[in-house]
Amino acid sequence: MLFTVCGVIGFAAASVLLVEKVALLEDPSYVPSCSINPILSCGSIMRTEQAEVFGFPNPMIGIAGFAMVTTTGVAVLAGAAMRHWYWRGLQAGVTFGVVFVHWLAFQSLHRIGALCPYCMVVWAVTIPLFWYTTLYNLRSGRLPTPRPLRRPVAVLTEYHGVVLTV
Length: 166
Prior knowledge:
The chain is mostly helical. It has one domain: VKOR domain (de novo design (two linked rop proteins), Up-down Bundle), CATH 1.20.1440.130. It contains 7 helices and no strands. It has helices spanning 2-26, 42-46, 59-77, 84-112, 117-140, 147-158, 160-165. The longest helix has 29 residues, at 84-112. It is elongated, with a radius of gyration of 18 Å. The two termini are 22 Å apart.
């Protein structure tokens, strides 16, 4: 259920960001709907090089990634059993995602000096996706857990909500 809900929310936020980015590319004077004031301003973020780290708008990564997460969630809800390699691939994707959104958050806060509300939604769903994918993969043995780490993993699993909140 988490994959489906977070995937849909992330997909929607990334889609809106891409639509806003395209509108800004078409008309440089366009003011995105998420530009509320100088601090909450998507427009000022969308104009930076950080908004196109790989040479294309970052929301395109989100659209692809969240589509996969949503599809995974729906498939699991329908009773599909994914193979180990699939879960490891998903782990790689959410790990990339959580590192990337943390880097983008740092850039927004400390380099650009503005926040994008839609970006913050993406950040807010990426973190639990990473956390619960990692816990699932560790508990199920899809990611090997060395013997000395089994007890800490059990504790983290037991207090998963507290860890996520912190």
